[in-house]
Amino acid sequence: MTQAPASHPHRITIVGGGAGGLELAVRLGKKLGKKNKAQVTLVDAARTHLWKPLLHQIAAGTMDSHTDELEYLALARNYHFRFRLGRMDGLDRGKKEIYLAPTCDEENNEILPRQAIPYDTLVLAIGSQSNDFGTPGAQEHCIMLDSPAAAERFHQRLINSCLRAQTKAKLPGQAPFTVTIIGGGATGVELSAELHMTARIMSTYGLANFDPGKDLRIVVVEAAPRLLQALPERLSSAVAHELQSLHIEILTSERVVEVTKDGVRMADGTFIQSELVVWCAGIKVPDFTRNLDGLDVNRLNQLMVRRTLQSTRDASVFAIGDCASCPQGDGKPPVPPRAQSAHQEAMLLARSLMRMLEGKPLREFTYRDYGSLVSLGEYSAVGSLMGAIARGSVFIEGHIAKWMYWWLYKRHQIAVSGWFRTWLVTWAEAINWARNPRIKLH
User: Fold this and answer.
1) What's domain 138-282's architecture?
2) Where are the beta strands (DSSP E) in 16-175?
3) What is the CATH topology of the domain spanning 10-128+285-366?
4) Phi-psi region at 70: left, alpha or beta (left = phi > 0; alpha = psi -120 to 50)
5) What is the pLDDT of residues 396-442, one digit of tens each?
């Protein structure tokens, strides 16, 4: 008598290898993939992972992306999941398949054809991108700090401009090289401080005609009444005071209406002539989520999910991180799109999916705000801690805040690579810090 073929393990497909998606893939790979209880597949358009809060350091050159990138294929081998390269652009919920666009190289030669990947459970963790709000010229003339490639492109333009300044004779009354940062959130604020530090260090490497105090102008433009509008006012005030001490210009309650190749125009007619413009204001999810086979999305293209992180239209489709709009209840706004949200959702969903395979009910997500930290390069860091430390919040700054900011990254490394590998990587980072220039000069 011929036996029927064994059914395949439950297929969990995760789209997006950012902080939440990668942590989820690693956790499920170790718990389910290793024991063949499920087939875990991670899909991403890039070949390597870099923690997104580090992009401002890559842009400023205070971190080399190549030393901190993690190879998805290597992680997949080490932690018992599969990796598929490609950018998702479609979904068929009836067939339970996602579709990946063809992957091409820099010369537009096809590397991978269009693909269809099946799933039993689908987790969307595709993150977010900058939202230019339809501002004329923004796409053409701004660098959107969304990816390591964009951060590297900004860094190259910064280095080239400083080298150019070295060979040019200064003219009387010549305007300084101006970098305008649109958006006074955490990314914009942290980038401005890192740029100031980079310019100061760079002037020590033989750039005789480049004086960071006179030849570089950094302007932060924010439409809200203050920087870091989503964070406590005390933290915002401390950051503004620190940036002003570095002679970084802060323009609040200013709305950008146009970006040209020569600079940025405000609603009141003011024009800031700029050699480099970076857009760090607002987020939205990639537009293709609007057409994901009928799944509900909000005005930012975020997928609407229940407290279980399941989409409102399909119980087999989940979403976590920036691409998900998860309710908190009790009249509170949805879970904020922050790195700590993605981490918490990934950890909860890993436990929930393991319970689901055992026939147990899913758990509901409860967001815990542990506070906020903002790094200002080597100058300082400020933050507010919440949760178990005290009722309300505790304001911190200086070395304590800098160490806690560093620990946030280490916690992500531990979640992905484990304690031992993170320990080894930390020693390697210390050796590289002593061996290499303080900033990337190419």
Assistant:
1) 3-Layer(bba) Sandwich (3.50)
2) 38-44, 48-49, 70-71, 82-85, 87-92, 97-101, 103-104, 110-112, 115-118, 121-124, 129-130, 143-144
3) FAD/NAD(P)-binding domain (3.50.50)
4) beta
5) 666 677 777 778 888 888 888 888 888 888 887 777 666 655 555 55
What's the N-to-C CA distance of the chain in angstroms? 68
Q: What is residue 292's three-state secondary structure?
A: coil
Q: What percent of the chain has pLDDT over 90?
A: 53
User: Token digits for 65?
Assistant: 């992306």
97 contacts 80 by C-beta, under 8 angstroms:
no
Where in the chain do CATH 3.50.50.60 domains reside?
Answer: 10-128+285-366, 138-282
Q: What is the pTM of this model?
A: 0.89
**DSSP letters along 365-422, please?**
P-----EEEEEETTTEEEEEEESSS-SSEEEEETHHHHHHHHHHHHHHHHHHHHHHHH
Type and span of the H or E element at 303: strand 303-304
Taking residues 274-285, what's their average pLDDT?
91
Residue type for 191, please? L
Give the number of other CB atoms < 10 A from CB of residue 155.
24
- Cβ contacts of residue 399 below 8 Å, gap of 6+? none
Residue showing tokens 């997104």? 52
DSSP 30: I
